[in-house]
Amino acid sequence: MQPTEDRYREILRKYWGFDDFRGIQREIIDSICSGRDTLGLMPTGGGKSLTFQVPALAMKGVCIVITPLIALMKDQVMHLRKHGIRAAAIYGSMMHNEIITTLENCIFGGIDLLYVSPERLSSELFQTKLKHMKVSFITVDEAHCISQWGYDFRPSYLKIADIRKLKPGVPVLALTATATPLVTDDIQEKLAFKEKNVFKMSFERKNLAYIVRRTADKQEEMIHILNSVSGSAIVYVRSRKRSKEISGLLNKCGISATFYNAGLEHVTRDSRQTEWQNDKVRVMVATNAFGMGIDKPDVRVVIHIDSPDSIEAYFQEAGRAGRDGNKAYAVLLYNNSDNGKLEKRINENFPEKDYIKKVYEHLAYYYQIGMGSGLGHKFEFNIDRFCYTFRHFPVQVDSSLKILAKAGYIEYEEDSDTKARVRF
Ligand code: ADP
Ligand code: MG
Question: Could you read off the pLDDT of 194-208 as tens digits, one per residue?
Fold first, then answer.
């Protein structure tokens, strides 16, 4: 029997203390609870999490939640447990025994929500245990990661369709803030939806003012803005080096700031994010590595001192301001040299086909003659040396590697500024 209407609201009040659903939350919940594959499109901060968390409590069985980031997973599970909800996660750094115990808890009905990474889906242990599990439905968070047309493609998301085959009849709830037609069609196709079924909410953010400001001196303008708007802020920059520089500059001007980029150790990144999250530091100066899973409600301003790669990326990054619904600002600073820079970036990000092919051939050659250190099929090489031998620019090589990875020719893992790991 379907849980009744009021049951959902009861759950919402009991566990979260919220009065009512907002936007299209209710429609999405009704759709998934009636057993239909469902795609929910809601902007960042729109409240996607509740659309699977509430039905997970209302329905019998475990809701499997696939999310791309371990940090995000841990965060949500901790949050849910605080509310007295039986949630669990499995991730790589857990002990084997712990993983088994968690999966068995799911089989014996002790868990309502199980968070897993997409990579986990292909593990034999997981698949074996899954067979014995009563699954209410499968949630695919950040579902745009399944699409090559999206800006955050993860090949491992494609494995979700295989899992569906193991659990026929179990519906899928896909959620994302990326609403381009190409991506939404692709998500439904790649997830093997029985029929198309999309719910879309307005992406307008009424409390967020978007401002584009042309200025000869971006740094001065940035400082001016940060001195005029109080509260938590993010400044997005293009390079790791610049994140450090701008953060230094702000501190010199008496504005407390820290910086974040993919070149930093995980522990450093986590501690900086926490400091900022807890208002120990006011401004986070970051590259686009500071992204998914940031849920600070009271960010008052997001400044882009450099232009991002795409409108989609801009909307996501700017959208981190004002999640609490109070007035917030998204400011894009630009000057005359930005156009040229953007054009150059397009050329770097999308090298010619022949160029990509050459990179691949060189890579295979390196691998064959044993340059770099090979561990099994995983092969680590010094990217500077590779670029030097190859007489080309690291950015283009890097783009080529990413494109090759997207197309499934290689697996590519960026390690640090100088090293990369490739698996053929
Ligand atoms: P998304 O995943 O879409 O970016 P979240 O699920 O993280 O958004 O929700 C954003 C914020 O909105 C959270 O702080 C959440 O508690 C709040 N929220 C969601 N739904 C409701 C609701 N019905 N009533 C009040 N607050 C809500
Ligand atoms: Mg979310």
Answer: 999 999 998 888 899
Please say whether the beta carbons of 118 and 142 come within 8 A. no
Residues 184 and 187: their CA atoms lie apart, in Å, by 5
275 ligand 1 Cβ < 6 A: no
Q: Which of 391, 390, 423 is nearest to 408 (CA)?
A: 423
Residue-wise pLDDT for 224-236, tens only, equals: 999 999 999 999 9
Residue 274, H or E segment: helix 266-277
Expressed in angstroms and rounded, the spacing between residue 48 Cα and the centre of ligand 1 is: 7
Q: Is 75 in the pocket of ligand 1 (CB under 6 A)?
A: no
143 lines ligand 1 (CB under 6 A): no
Which ligand is closest to the CA of 201, given by its number? 1
Nearest-angstrom CA–CA distance, 51 and 171: 14
Please identify which residue in the block is written with the tokens 């005029």: 228
CA dihedral 337, 338, 342, 345 (to 10 degrees): 60
295 Cβ below 6 A of ligand 1: yes
ipTM: 0.98
